[in-house]
Structure formats: C-alpha cells, structure tokens
Design a protein that fits this description.
The chain is of the alpha+beta class. The protein contains 2 helices and 3 strands; from the N terminus they run αβββα. A hairpin with a 3-residue loop joins β2 and β3.
Length: about 80
C-alpha cells in the first residue's frame, strides 16, 4: 500500500467518526503513532491509532479548526 493510501484510509476513518457526531477529546502521541479518543453523547466512545504523520497532522488541523474537517478530499487513483 502506498503512503498516500495509508494516510487516506486513516483520514477517512477520522472524518467518518466526526460526521457521525463524535468529538475529539484526547490525543496521546508516542513513538508508535497517535491514539485519538472520540466521544459522542458522553458515553459512546471510539479510539483510533493513527500511524501516518499526515493523518496526525489532519487531526491537529481539525482540533485547531474547532472540531470539523474543512472539506472532504476526493482522490482518484
């Protein structure tokens, strides 16, 4: 799998959770990647392990933008 395909898969997973109403509540970074915790409605939670640097940057951009992705990215290969 190419580096872009790995990033795109992780980006889509993040964006899907945000579209389902989840919010980012915690990011734990270490040498293995970033573990991002999402919560919806106070009790429903999900965790993603992001391995690519671009996906981690995408999450940081979302946090600074107020919790929503700017716009969906469409890519044709």
């Amino acid at each position: 799998m190419s580096a872009f395909e790995e990033f795109d898969k992780e980006r889509q997973a993040v964006d899907k959770l945000l579209q389902q109403g989840y919010g980012i509540v915690n990011i734990k970074e270490d040498l293995d990647g970033a573990e991002v915790t999402f919560v919806r409605g106070g009790s429903d939670s999900a965790k993603l392990l992001l391995l690519t640097a671009d996906a981690r940057k995408h999450v940081a951009t979302i946090v600074f933008a107020g919790g929503r992705p700017a716009a969906p990215v469409e890519a044709s290969i």
